[in-house]
Specification:
The chain is of the alpha/beta class. The chain contains nine helices and eight strands. The strands form two sheets. The chain has a five-stranded parallel beta sheet, with helices on both faces.
């Protein structure tokens, strides 16, 4: 009888267990809760989500003012903190927005169709099997985009680079002499990192948006670094206790909002001459 009860208890316990996937490295484990830290890449438990069958992201057609993009490999670390601050500010000012942490989504490498034939780089994108087509639609439907990135080797994260590479089909509309979907929209940029490369990272990001006709908000870049003299494990505590991170991030959000109020996109519609590589 004791053995039977033990089997029942084990079976009941197993029913509560879930498969958890690390969004950074893909490590999967089974348990009632995610691990305290990923044994494969060292990420915190906040990077784990329940593992589930992949379903491509779809756009419901609802417009919003701001698309808020966390381009970090770690959705819950320092870049995520800046995005949290931006989200709080948008909410406090009553601005409609949608936030996305890119490591939760599937964004394939760009197929570089343009390098084969310019007309093959079309909108909608020929790769309709990942999440990027939904992002294309949301970029077109929003009035502004605020992008956050860590500094990885003096530039943006690889995830964000893939995301921006995949906007080529929107930029290429101008080369194909078709109506554009992005000119006059507004962009703000948030960057953080351990050491050098903040402004280069911000400008690398901005160049993608500039080629799509976006307008940079005045004082539209916020960046903060900790410093190579410190251990990187100390960065999180520094950023969360640094008043400049808070004031700079809120400032960029405020400046994006103020520019949106001027309806720059509406005033420039049909008046711009696309000059895009």
């Amino acid at each position: 009888m004791g053995q039977t009860q033990s089997k029942k208890k084990t079976a009941a316990g197993a029913g509560r267990e879930k498969r958890w996937r690390c969004l950074v490295c893909g490590f999967v484990m089974t348990g009632e809760k995610p691990p305290k830290g990923c044994p494969k890449c060292g990420s915190s438990s906040r990077e784990f989500l329940p593992d589930k069958k992949y379903t491509p992201l779809s756009y419901d057609g609802e417009k919003c003012d701001v698309l808020l993009i966390n381009g970090s490999t770690h959705r819950s670390n320092n870049t995520g903190y800046m995005v949290d601050l931006a989200e709080d500010e948008l909410r406090a000012k009553g601005i409609s927005y949608r936030r996305f942490n890119l490591n939760e989504y599937r964004i394939d490498h760009c197929w570089c169709c343009y390098s084969m034939k310019a007309e093959y780089c079309t909108y909608p994108c020929r790769n309709s099997e990942d999440d990027m087509p939904a992002f294309h639609q949301m970029i077109a439907a929003s009035r502004a985009v605020i992008v956050a990135s860590p500094i990885n080797w003096n530039t943006m994260s690889a995830r964000l680079k893939d995301f921006l590479d995949r906007t080529t089909c929107m930029q290429n509309l101008f080369h194909l002499v078709k109506p554009g979907l992005t000119e006059g929209k507004i962009v703000g940029i948030l960057v953080n990192g351990h050491e050098d490369g903040a402004m280069k990272t911000a400008m690398d990001i901005y160049l993608h948006f500039q080629q799509m006709g976006f307008v940079m908000a005045p004082f539209g870049i916020a960046f903060r670094t900790h410093g190579p003299e410190f251990n990187s494990s100390m960065d999180a505590e520094f950023f969360k206790n640094d008043e400049l991170v808070i004031s700079y991030t809120k400032g960029v959000v405020n400046n994006v909002i103020e520019l949106m109020k001027l309806d720059i996109e509406g005033k420039l519609k049909g008046k711009l001459v696309p000059v895009s590589e």
